[in-house]
What we know:
This protein is mostly helical. The protein has helices at 7-14, 21-32, 37-49, 52-66, 70-94, 96-104, 112-121, 126-154. The chain has one domain (7-154).
Amino acid sequence: MFGTFPIWFWIFFTSMIPWWESRYAIPAAMLYFNWEWWQALPIAVIGNMLPIPFILLFFHLVEKFLRNYKTWTRFMDWLFAKTRKRADSKIRRYEYIGLILFVAIPLPFTGAWTGALIAYLFDLKFTKSLITIFIGVLIVAFIMIALTLFFGNIFGYSFSC
Length: 161
């Protein structure tokens, strides 16, 4: 199934997928491909971060274009309302620390893509948001590595680190 593309490409590409990101690409690389965490980490983090500057810089243009279509308008209204509801108190109170925590929590509908959307919705500064999201991505990557090593060893996966 994965023979067409090298493993590093699979890790890199899947890290760009919203809500999957490096938080699941790294454990998948460790468990499915038997990669060491330190091999998967840089590839996954780079893949995870690659779309973020574009989202921060150009999402307003994408939103403007998509709002010409009723279905997309409804979807964005729902997504933005849900995102604002989940992030409002944290971001208004803690700003960038709240953004780091939001990105670093390994739960569904958190992560770099959602962090970039939050930065866009709350009009946070580009450079600070990019750095903050990067820190959050690193934190969640190490959380997932630790969980994978811990539970992998419990369930009999062998890691050579």
